[in-house]
Amino acid sequence: MSQAPTGAVRPLSGRAAAAVFDDGTHQLAVLVPGPDPAAPAGISVFAGGQQPPRVIALPGPVTALADDGRGTVYLAAHGGYFVADLSSGHTAAVSVSQAQQVQFTAIARRGDGKLVLGSADGAVYLLAAQPPDNSGTAAVASRNKIFARVDSLVTQGNTTVVLDRGQTSVTTIDAGGRAEQALRAGEGATTLAADPLGLFLAADTRGGQLLVYGVDPLMLRQAYPVRQAPYGLTGSRELAWVTQTASNMVIGYDLSTGIPIEKVRYPTVQQPNSLAFDQTSGTLYVVSGSGAGVQVIEHAAGTS
User: Fold this and answer.
1) CATH topology of domain 8-297
2) 3-state SS string over the chain?
3) What are the structural domain ranges in the chain?
4) Tens-digit pLDDT profile for the chain (304 aa)?
5) Is the peptide bond before 267 cis (omega within 30 degrees of 0)?
6) Model pTM?
């Protein structure tokens, strides 16, 4: 029997594709694609209180987003990326040199501020630097085309982790843009998330597992059964969070002992595909992929 979601649920217009919490502005940014693949997307920006989100209209369709933690988000697009300022709502388009026909599917920002993009045809692009005014054309420092498709990117420092769902693999790219180690990611990993403690998380949806990796060197440190189609992921300093999309639940695991230990679980909104966490307030955001809204769980880790 379905349970009512814990906490408050705030309406969201559309089916969310991704979400990030920006520490600098204390706002949640939710990527909402357009009604069809060719339609422009938007960002719904949630601040505190109960006021409806502000919507930032984007110049075109996008597939993924990354955050700099200071009020700016970056969004993967066809031939390049968009930059959006969460406070002013200003947007700009940046082309990637010699990639005008490339469909970018993933984006991440490294510790040194450089952007990394992944493409539908299996290439990872390390950009040399952002244009000074966040418009124009960005030069490419390196390009690795060794994947079937780049489905997700996360970073730890200046190391990038690539998820290729088709090959069920995770691969690290070093600071210079060179591919390093690669490992199989369960039976069918679908999502990645960086952990603030220097690890990264993968949801093996087909195999029903939470996978926990170290990056230097790439090593599978923990694998723990999570049934009911694990998918949404985020990390916090206290717990690692994973959703069960078949049962509409979110679970917080303590990873500190070497074996994940369940600490809390909450009923969620329908299809809890995306998670974000505000470390300052301890608030967990659970974002529905079916249009059921944004769930806000305050003090989610509890007192333990």
Assistant:
1) Methylamine Dehydrogenase; Chain H (2.130.10)
2) CCCCCCCEEECCCCCCCEEEEECCCCEEEEEECCCCCCCCCEEEEECCCCCCCEEEECCCCCCEEEECCCCEEEEEEECEEEEEECCCCCEEEEEECCCCCCEEEEEEECCCCCEEEEECCCEEEEECCCCCCCCEEECEEEEEECCCCCCEEEEECCEEEEEECCCCEEEEECCCCCEEEEEECCCCEEEEEECCCCCEEEEECCCCEEEEEEECCEEEEEEEECCCCEEEEEECCCCEEEEECCCCEEEEEECCCCCCEEEEEEECCCCEEEEEEECCCCEEEEEECCCCCEEEECCCCCCC
3) 8-297
4) 478 999 999 999 999 999 999 999 999 999 999 999 899 999 999 998 788 999 999 999 999 999 999 999 999 999 999 999 999 999 999 999 999 999 999 999 999 999 999 999 999 999 998 877 777 899 999 999 999 999 999 999 999 999 999 999 999 999 999 999 999 999 999 999 999 999 999 999 999 999 999 998 999 999 999 999 999 999 999 999 999 999 999 999 999 988 999 999 999 999 999 999 999 999 999 999 999 999 999 999 985 4
5) no
6) 0.97
